[in-house]
């Protein structure tokens, strides 16, 4: 504990008061975040059932991987890491995350660029764009489920009147379009969020840069690529990380639009099903733990790969 | 300590309620509403409130029984005192038996009035976990006017139904009714598809998902034939969207006059026959078709039953409420207004019920011989068994693998799930 350099009383006091101010938040975090997390990880190593979690027995890594010898020279791997349903859920989640974040970023950028220009009624448009984001996910998902209904849905009606499709498409039921349907709803819902974050970045760009570029007669596309994009990149990257974190644990949209459908079931859906529907609380806990690990690794990887500056240091 | 805790609990509860009205308690009943369930229940609860001075709140849940079960399990494993009475699916209560009050003693004086099969389905190791409220057994709904118009008989086999559906659908479409479909059922991947699937397979002589003794024989040619038949409907006589249909979706199509046949539970009868229904007076019901000669028709035993939570602060009032809701008068009223088959045997023979819902007395033998799901054989693993089964059926219907492949996969998964025993 010996300090090499004696600290001044003032800086010592500041450290103490910082901890005092932090303490309530740390206590709350410990109760609402750390405790459930640790408990979930613990249950992943037991044979707990939801009815009587108190009677859980430690079984080590058997929920993750276990080789079962049948005694006749054959055997089989059991556990999450050998479960094709789990890997399917992982693959579904990654696909969903990639496409939703990609399109949300592109559309969000376009909307942000439009909203960043001066035009009459801009305040009104800005507010209107936020509506999809303001509607609770569960409500918008149910609303879209009705709009996508193959018999009563308005979506098919419009597309048929426009002669884009010849007969009604069962958007959420057809295995080929189920993921597309989920993506459409998610992109509709979350693009405003991306637009808002990117717009915030755009507003930080000094106006005189554009004026200088205008005076020099530089093409707007070139201005966008050489001036705007590099300057708003940090904001865009933060937005992407936020969005990807959200998308990786997506649950509600999938659950409402295509319940129990293995073609769209994500990691969260898989975990919930095992935790509550099946008598597999420990297995579901193990799945939740892996979900946590995967999100953490992907996020750290992304931050590293893009050399994002999250600390605020220069 | 235990007594003391209970005592203070009662004291606290009583003193809290004393402020409202002396002696009266507040109860909460939870259930998923389909059709007119909420309306009729509220009416019955109003009478109960008037009679006892207690108040009862309805906590409504989503339509899907699979969704409800997850929530119930959460409440119960958290020992939540918020809900006193659960209305729970026939397959649900046995899985949650440990959380419910044993009703054997409280209902000893009335239990003989109930349909024995219903009571049996809710008895786990000698403990009555829920008092049967109403039963369910599906029917084949058909449009009498259309069968007459095209001079077709009421189908007895699935093949006949398929053909008739196609003839009428094509005919109606040629006359300009482009929204017409031949057959609608419940094809979404959830508990309802398990019911549909086991009916097809059993009626083809393919046996049960899991036999009564726990053995697994689902991977057989008859079962594959049944699933192949069902697959042939999707996109031909049934809309592609049927792969995501639950009860109310199917009813929506049938009741708006856009389907010749529908497989649905009894509740749909009262609604389709309601004064504002476009198909009122134009349809009837019959037993579900069979695979071929010598096969027997299968109707899945359904039903919803009332269980009292162990964590209810007012168990005595809750038990009284359960008994009240299931007495003869209320069952009779429910039978008349919602066309749900009652669990009190005498209601089937009541002349007023027969007049209002001619369907119900006719359905007595169907209900009594209904095919239960393998929830007794597979116990706490039932939900997972059902999920594996509906996934195999749904995959087959949506063209993800053949019936043979999916049944083989299902057999392997069930065996693995069973392990040393259910």
Automatic annotation (TrEMBL), chain A:
Family stated for the protein in its record: Belongs to the binding-protein-dependent transport system permease family.
InterPro entries reported in the protein's UniProt record: MetI-like, MetI-like_sf
Chain ranges of the ABC transmembrane type-1 domain: 90-304
UniProt organism field: Martelella mediterranea DSM 17316
The protein, known as: Trehalose transport system permease protein SugA
GO biological process: transmembrane transport
Primary localization class, coarse: membrane
Compartment(s) where it occurs, according to its Swiss-Prot or TrEMBL record: Cell membrane
Gene3D superfamilies the UniProt entry points to: MetI-like
Keywords carried by this UniProt record: Cell membrane, Membrane, Transmembrane, Transmembrane helix, Transport
Cellular component, GO annotation: plasma membrane
Transmembrane segments: 16-38, 96-115, 127-147, 178-202, 223-245, 281-303
Bilayer topology: Multi-pass membrane protein
Domain of life: Bacteria
Keyword rRNA-binding: no
TrEMBL record, chain B:
Keyword Transport assigned: yes
Keywords, ordered alphabetically: Periplasm, Signal, Transport
Span of the signal peptide: 1-24
Nucleotide-binding is among the record's keywords: no
GO CC list: periplasmic space
Cellular compartment(s): Periplasm
Main location: periplasm
Entry-linked InterPro entries: Bact_solute-bd_prot1 (IPR050490), SBP (IPR006059)
Stored Gene3D superfamilies: Periplasmic binding protein-like II
UniProt similarity note: Belongs to the bacterial solute-binding protein 1 family.
PANTHER family: ABC TRANSPORTER PERIPLASMIC-BINDING PROTEIN YCJN-RELATED, ARABINOSE-BINDING PROTEIN-RELATED
The protein's name in its UniProt record: Putative ABC transporter-binding protein
Organism in which the protein naturally occurs: Martelella mediterranea DSM 17316
């Amino acid at each position: 504990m010996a300090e090499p350099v004696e600290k001044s009383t003032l800086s010592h006091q500041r450290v103490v008061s910082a901890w005092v101010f932090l303490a309530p938040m740390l206590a709350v975090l410990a109760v609402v975040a750390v405790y459930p997390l640790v408990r979930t990880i613990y249950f992943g190593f037991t044979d707990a059932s939801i009815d009587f979690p108190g009677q859980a027995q430690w079984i080590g890594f058997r929920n993750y991987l276990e080789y079962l010898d049948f005694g006749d020279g054959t055997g089989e791997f059991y556990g999450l890491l050998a479960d094709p349903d789990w890997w399917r859920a992982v693959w579904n989640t990654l696909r969903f995350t990639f496409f939703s974040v990609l399109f949300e970023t592109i559309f969000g950028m376009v909307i942000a660029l439009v909203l960043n220009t001066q035009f009459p009624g801009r305040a009104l448009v800005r507010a209107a764009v936020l509506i999809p984001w303001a509607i609770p996910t569960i409500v918008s998902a149910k609303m879209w489920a009705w709009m996508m209904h193959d018999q009563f849905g308005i979506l098919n009606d419009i597309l048929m009147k426009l002669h884009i499709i010849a007969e009604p498409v069962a958007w959420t039921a057809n295995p080929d379009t189920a993921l597309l349907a989920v993506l459409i709803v998610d992109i509709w819902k979350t693009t405003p969020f991306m637009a808002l974050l990117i717009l915030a970045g755009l507003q930080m760009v000094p106006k005189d840069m554009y004026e200088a570029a205008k005076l020099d007669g530089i093409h707007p596309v070139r201005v966008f690529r050489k001036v705007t994009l590099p300057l708003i990149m940090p904001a865009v990257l933060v937005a992407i990380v936020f969005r990807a974190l959200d998308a990786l644990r997506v649950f509600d949209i999938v659950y409402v639009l295509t319940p129990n459908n293995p073609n769209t079931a994500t990691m969260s859906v898989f975990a919930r099903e095992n935790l509550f529907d099946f008598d597999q609380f420990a297995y579901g806990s193990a799945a939740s733990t892996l979900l946590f690990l995967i999100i953490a690794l992907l996020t750290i990887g992304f931050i590293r790969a893009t050399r994002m500056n999250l600390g605020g240091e220069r | 300590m235990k007594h003391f805790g209970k005592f203070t609990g009662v004291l606290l509860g009583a003193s809290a309620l004393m402020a409202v009205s002396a002696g009266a308690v507040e109860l909460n009943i939870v259930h998923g509403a389909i059709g007119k369930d909420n309306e009729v229940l509220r009416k019955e609860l109003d009478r109960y409130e008037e009679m006892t001075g207690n108040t009862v709140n309805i906590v409504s849940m989503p339509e899907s029984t699979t969704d409800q079960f997850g929530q119930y399990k959460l409440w119960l494993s958290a020992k939540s005192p918020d809900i006193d009475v659960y209305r729970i699916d026939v397959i649900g209560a046995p899985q949650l038996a440990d959380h419910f009050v044993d009703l054997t003693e409280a209902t000893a004086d009335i239990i003989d009035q109930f349909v024995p099969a219903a009571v049996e389905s809710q008895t786990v190791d000698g403990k009555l976990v829920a008092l049967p409220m109403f039963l369910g057994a599906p029917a084949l709904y058909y449009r009498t006017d259309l069968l007459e118009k095209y001079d077709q008989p009421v189908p007895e086999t699935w093949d006949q139904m398929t053909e008739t559906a196609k003839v009428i659908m094509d005919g109606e479409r040629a006359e300009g009714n482009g929204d017409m479909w031949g057959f609608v059922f419940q094809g979404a991947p959830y508990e309802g598809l398990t019911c549909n699937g086991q009916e097809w397979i059993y009626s083809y002589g393919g046996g049960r998902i899991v036999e009564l003794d726990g053995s697994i024989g689902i991977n057989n040619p008859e079962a594959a034939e049944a699933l192949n038949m069902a697959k042939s409907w999707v996109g031909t006589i049934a809309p592609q969207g049927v792969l995501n249909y639950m009860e109310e979706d199917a009813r929506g199509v049938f009741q708006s006059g856009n389907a010749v046949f529908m497989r649905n539970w009894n509740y749909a009868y009262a609604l389709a026959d309601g004064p504002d229904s476009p198909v009122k007076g134009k349809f009837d019901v019959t037993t579900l078709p069979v695979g071929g000669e010598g096969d027997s028709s299968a109707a899945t035993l359904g039903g919803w039953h009332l269980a009292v939570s162990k964590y209810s602060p007012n168990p005595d009032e809750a038990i009284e409420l359960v008994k009240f809701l299931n007495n003869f008068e209320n069952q009779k009223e429910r039978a008349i207004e919602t066309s749900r088959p009652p669990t009190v045997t005498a209601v089937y023979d009541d002349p007023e019920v027969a007049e209002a819902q001619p369907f119900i007395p006719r359905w007595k033998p169907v209900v009594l011989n209904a095919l239960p799901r393998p929830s007794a054989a597979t116990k706490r693993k039932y939900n997972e068994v059902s999920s594996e089964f509906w996934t195999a059926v749904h995959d087959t219907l949506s063209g993800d693998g053949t019936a043979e492949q999916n049944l083989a996969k299902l057999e392997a998964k069930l065996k693995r799930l069973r392990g040393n025993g259910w």
